[in-house]
Amino acid sequence: MKSYYHYFFSKHKAIYLQLARQHGISPYRVYQLAHGSRVKKIFENNMKLEMDSVSENESLARMGVASFLTKIDPTLEEINDIKTAVSEAVTNSIIHGYRDKKGIVEIKCHLRETIIEKEDEILHISLITIIVRDDGTGIDDIEKAMEPMYTSKPENDRAGMGFAFMQLFMDTVDVWSKPYIGTSVTMTKELKRIEKKGNNGCNNA
Predict the structure, then answer these.
(1) Is 158 annotated as catalytic?
(2) Is residue 187 within 8 Å of 89, Cβ to Cβ?
């Protein structure tokens, strides 16, 4: 099937890429949809949180994002991975962005769930986008800051593993920053569940 897919994809590359971007799925899934599967439903939701840059609000950020994602029924491991990445991003804003001064940390979450109905099963594909933004001091050298073990505050015994953990637990991590303007961290993760028809149980893929 995949060999024919590669041949077919080369003939219709522009269309496949356009549909993949529109639905937030891979070109191969577009091919699968065109050969015996159909999109049953697309669900989208957004959330925005703003909080003071105090360490006590790290747990609020974790709980807020976890609550937002309950609709897609993630596994405990999946939700813990996302909560850890969010916690690291928020901590960076508080410790390195505002340097323990008063400021606002903004968290935006976007969820896009595509439900694909097949002959004997229903596939749930959830694309999660989380943006953590601050108006703090910014980052002079983003590439250096993202190196494991690097920290701008060694005097505080910081491990310098914040970005490393974000990259470990999320699919993509993109950082935008300007000195004295602020920093924005955009993270994405795709989760999949397979629901067998005639069976109330779901399998997380």
Answers:
(1) yes
(2) yes
